[in-house]
Specification:
The chain contains 5 helices and 9 strands, in the order E-E-H-E-H-E-H-E-H-E-H-E-E-E. It is an alpha/beta fold. The chain folds into 2 domains: 108 residues, Rossmann fold (3-Layer(aba) Sandwich); 96 residues, no CATH class. The strands form 3 sheets. It has a 4-stranded antiparallel sheet, covered by helices on one side. Strand 1 and strand 2 form a beta hairpin. The relative contact order is 0.15. The model has no long low-confidence stretch (mean pLDDT 95).
Length: 205
């Protein structure tokens, strides 16, 4: 969208679980989130939430973040949702009356084609969280690549849109340089399997 001139991207917005200093659900370390923002040359606005986080608290913190964004002149927020109508409806309902318009530029895209287009464009990513009810725990920590797409069981969305997996992006066309990372410990908590992605330099790699 930024390349086409449709919008001017002025920052990133994400939730960080305070107790763990990690991106919520993805379990990406905050230090890596900061490095992603640096590679994009954009400020990252973090919505800090507790663990566990009641939905009412999450919504309150997001409302505060949107109000701050509006005060800074932000008029739109872009979401990466692909086809889950209930998720889109929830976002639209919560943003109604905020003065900020939600945008869904990837909505309706074929997810198999989208996954392959992203890889062809230079995206590099690692699976940081998987739902073991849908995928074998061995997928945690794997690279998001053509081999992974070929190995996904039938019925698994290649972009993980149904929550099958979450990723950490270490390289993409918008980054000024790729991030060097390694996969550390794999653990199972709260019904999900997490792979700890670490900055390569932090472990002497």
């Amino acid at each position: 969208m930024q390349r086409s001139g449709e919008v001017e991207v002025v920052g990133l917005l994400t939730t960080v679980t305070s107790e763990f200093e990690r991106v919520s659900m993805h379990a990406v370390r905050e230090v890596l989130l900061d490095r992603q923002a640096k590679m994009l040359r954009l400020p990252c606005h973090k919505v800090r939430i507790p663990w566990p986080c009641p939905n009412e608290r999450y919504e309150r913190e997001m409302e505060r973040a949107l109000a701050e964004a509006l005060a800074l002149g932000v008029s739109r927020v872009v979401f990466g949702d692909l086809y889950l109508a209930d998720v889109r409806a929830y976002r639209e309902a919560k943003m109604a009356g905020t003065g900020i318009e939600p945008l869904f530029p990837l909505w309706g895209r074929d997810t198999t084609r989208l996954a392959r287009d992203m890889l062809a464009g230079g995206l590099q990513a690692t699976l940081t969280c998987i739902d073991p009810r849908r995928l074998d725990r061995g997928f945690a920590g794997r690279a998001f690549d053509e081999a992974l797409l070929a190995a996904l069981p039938a019925g698994i969305d290649p972009c993980g849109e149904n929550g099958e997996f979450h990723t950490f992006v270490s390289a993409c066309p918008m980054f000024k340089a790729p991030l060097e990372v390694v996969v550390g410990e794999v653990v199972e908590r709260e019904g999900f399997v997490f792979a700890d992605v670490l900055p390569a330099r932090a472990v002497g790699a």
